Amino acid sequence: MRTALRTNAGFTLIELMIVVVVIGVLASIAYPAYLEYVAKSKRAEGKAALALAAQRMERCFTANNTYAGCAINVVVDSGSYTISLQGAATTSAYKLQAVPAGGFTGDACGTLTINQAGETSAAQADCW
Q1: If 60 and its partner were Cys, which of 35, 39, 70, 85 is the partner (CB 3.0–4.6 Å)?
Q2: Hey, CA dihedral for 119, 122, 124, 128, is it positive or negative?
């Protein structure tokens, strides 16, 4: 008597559904973490651009003994922030701001600022 051996040539529907559920759970955890990582990297780029602009303001002050009339030409490569003076620079003070731009306008930290004394501010305390 011969017995026919059946070989399983694929996956069952239950096995495939389990894989889909596992991938869904992993994606639901990983995607928000990825978005937070992207936001932090854009904030770091904005802070670096603010530091560069502040350095240029200090160079101008050293050369002219005033902040008034100093120009800052700093561009954030990703376009996620726009760097500008908040108000006008005086002889002894300035305040620079990095305003979120493009698709990054909804950032929780909002506008980042720095002044001539190196004091920083943002919408949330942990942004700097």
Answers
A1: 70
A2: negative
**pTM across the whole model:** 0.76
CA distances to 42, 50, 90, 105 from 45, rounded to whole Å, are 5, 9, 27, 15
Per-residue pLDDT tens for 28-40? 999 999 998 998 9
- Cβ–Cβ < 8 Å for 12, 77: no
**Cβ-contact 81, 96 below 8 angstroms:** no
Q: In angstroms, how far apart are the furthest CA atoms of the chain?
A: 105
Contacts with 35 (C-beta within 8 Å, 6 or more apart), sequence order = none
Mean pLDDT score, 37-59: 93
Q: Which tokens hold the place of 28?
A: 């639901």
In this structure, the strands spanning 81-85 and 95-100 are: antiparallel
